[in-house]
Amino acid sequence: MEKRKHYIVELQVRDYECDAQGRVNNAIFLQYFEHARSQVFWERGYSLSKLHFENEDPVVARIEVDYRQPLQARDLVRIETELDFKKTYKILFQQTLLKQSDAGYVLAASASVVVAVLKSGKPAKIADTRLASMIDSAT
Q1: What span, in angstroms and rounded, lies between the C-alpha atoms of 129 and 118?
Q2: How many CA atoms lie within 13 A of 101 on its CB side?
Q3: Radius of gyration over every alpha carbon of the chain, rounded to an integer in angstroms
Q4: Number of Cβ atoms within 10 Å of the Cβ of 96
Q5: φ, ψ of residue 99 in degrees (nearest 5)
């Protein structure tokens, strides 16, 4: 079941995302990665709110982040996301955030996403959910 697909999201750091030292607050990086994961679902034709109303919620079960260097307001960044479908019950999102000015590695994240079935609250096999076509269409 191992198939991969690569996605890119670009954004600019906004002033209000920075702390008193002028650097992006570490919690904001989690929001950047969440935005990039959400974009992957949209690009694959999935609406997270529609999935919710269809009794399936993709949720982050685990996330691990490695910080390398800070970002400041107005920095342009690129988030590269790669999907990994090696596991039966989860999709692994490998994400890297790069500074566009010098292609410098800022941080990386690894997020395990499971699909929770709302009625039971338990994870479902990805192949048994509406996201199964995501696996089939990955190249």
Answers
A1: 12
A2: 8
A3: 16
A4: 17
A5: -80, 125
Q: Where do the structural domains in the chain lie, given as residue ranges?
A: 4-137
pTM for the model? 0.87
The string of pLDDT tens digits covering residues 37-77 is: 999 988 888 888 888 888 889 999 999 999 999 999 999 99
Is-contact 127 88, C-beta < 8 A? yes
CATH of domain 4-137: 3.10.129.10
The Cα 53–Cα 123 span in angstroms is: 16
Alpha-carbon distance of 39 to 78, in angstroms, equals: 13
What residues contact residue 114 under an 8 Å CB cut-off, 6+ apart? 58, 59, 61, 89, 90, 91, 123, 124
